[in-house]
Specification:
alpha+beta; Arc Repressor Mutant, subunit A; 2 domains; three-stranded antiparallel beta sheet; three-stranded mixed beta sheet; 4 helices; about 30% helix; globular; binds zinc ion
Length: about 160
Amino acid sequence: MSSPSAFIGPSKTAVAGLTPARERALIQRLRAANLRTTQPRIQLAHLLFGQGDRHLTAENLFSEAKAAGLTVSLATVYNALNQFLEAGLLREVIVDSGRSYFDTNLTNHFHFYVDGTGELIDVPPQSITITEMPKTPDGFRVSGVDVVLRLEPKSK
Ligand SMILES: [Zn+2]
């Protein structure tokens, strides 16, 4: 972020794979979620949603954006991710207090978390059975269940 190239301004760089048809589809998707369709946001959405189900931190997406030649700031990436999250285009997965993961898989599912590498791997919900739940405090009901299975190498 301290490099002078970060201040050049809006990128005119064509991001790999962002065809006019793909761009139109992304614009529709963002508009359907009531989001403004700025160029950086379209380009970030392309990087984010163009590669199947994935889990990313803001720093991961920022690195990808830089590698793709975009001149966006980390703050822009954070803002875009939080707006996508609020609009329901992403899920947030919290596995440790210091790091937020954004998940493009919106279906109900759980996660393996690899200690050390920080990788998240999807776990299908039907592979976990919760047979008993505690009684909720008065006035509350369970609104969702998050399960994170922490992994470490066998030979540790
Ligand atoms: Zn996931």
